[in-house]
Amino acid sequence: MADTDVIVIGAGLSGLATATELARRGRRVTLLDTEPEASLGGQAWWSFGGLFLVGSPEQRRLGVHDDANLALTDWLGSAQFAPGAERGEGPDRHGYAWAERFVEFASGPLRDWLHGMGVRWFPLVQWAERGGHLAGGHGNSVPRFHITWGTGPAILTPFVAAAHEANRAGTLRVLFRHRVVGLVTTDGAVTGVRVEVLTPDDAPRGTPSSRAVVREVELAADAVVIASGGIGANHDLVRACWPATAGQLPDAMLSGVPDSTDGELLARAVAAGADLVHSDRMWHYPEGIAMADPVWSHHGVRILPGPSSLWLDADGGRLPAPLFPGFDSLGALRHITGRGDSYSWFVLNRAIMEAEFALSGSDQNPDLTGKDVRLLLSRVLPRAVGPVARFAETSPDFVWAPTPRALAAGMNALTGEDRVDADALERLVALRDAQVSSGLGKDPQVVATARAREYLVDRAIRVSPPRPMTTPDDGPLLAVRLRVLTRKTLGGLHTDTDARVLRPDGSVLPGLYAVGEAAGFGGGGIHGERALEGTFLAGCLFTARAAAAALA
Fold first, then answer.
1. What pLDDT, in 10s, does the model give residues 474-485?
2. Which domains does the chain have, with CATH numbers?
């Protein structure tokens, strides 16, 4: 006899949304999570809260013209799905089907649903993943990255409230410190889970918790939903899955996710008969810097750059167009790993840093997270503020110097390698400055930066006025050493459009569903090869609604 109607594994955003939607529809739900209650909400709590919205009121107020057709064109240009996907054929058929539905969801229903639950957005829509490729290639044609007012925690708030309400009503039971170590199958169907009940732990949010086992139990259900996330904290697995055609990830990387994002449950699902697809598709960032006070192992944070910094490889050479800051994250990462480099550099000056640098994450944006308007207004002041200012003052990865030649010496001193030639760096900066001074220029990065300032938001808070990098009043010069920061899994458990997990032969594995990152945000790979940003939290919500509807 079933202990509950549905077991949901993982109390992050996708798990919370699935569980609360099911409870709202009258199903009895048990929500399991390995971590203590302090980590309720998982990775979403730490996020910047960005959502991919299409044709929104926020866009229209800024004069941005967007619609579902343009968004889908951008999506497909970035995804580069295998031929036949649009006809329901081939390895990307389910990812394509999910992508079409998601773009429609992002074109109205997503915002309306969240707005009805009290979620609001910062009015200045950001332009992430600009692409810089030809029409039909990767990138967002227009700004679509809507920052939630209150960042990631504010997206979680209505679902946490709904979980408490469902718990009081008796339709939702939440069990922390319950680690799923296996799926129970009966006559070929998933009918429950094997669980290690772990010792209580007061570990603060995001910190590693004990894995000491108190006892083992089995729980039975009519259906099981996997919402356990990806593999970002398991660096050995990340390196093993990285495609050989893109070189090799470095031995030392930073983590943008807590230690519990280890991918273990994906392996448990495969052992039960599930199909895991597109494991070599991942979304990691090349712009990572280490946290001075880490919460989890190898804790790093991503610099969110404007487009003005020069991006150099470990030898001091510019990355090729269009691999400019903020344009093509995965393209830049693959270029770096393809060279065998473990780091790269931003080269800029103090004024560009103050205008263009931001950091990702709720904890790095206390103004937006705390909904503090007075603190937010300090962003327009001519100086770095908050976490960016602290990194600039204390991080060993920030190298300051008065001249390009002195900067090259500082870069080499930091790495202990004599790889950046002072003459070459001086000439590179001089060539860039000559392009800017011309007022027009042929350098594609200089042209793209000037064009970006035609957008009101970029001109106001994101893109520095074009001036020579060696302008005395804008100095000193700055080089920032960037490391690989692991984040997201784009592949995952293969699902149909009802979120049902499939077997390797394409048949349904009865009783098993997957949502969020564990499902590649839908179909085992809704993004294909590349993402457009703002689609991860939104993908968690979209897959949760689909699974709940199928199970209602």
1. 999 999 999 999
2. 4-170+263-281+490-551 (3.50.50.60), 286-485 (3.90.700.10)
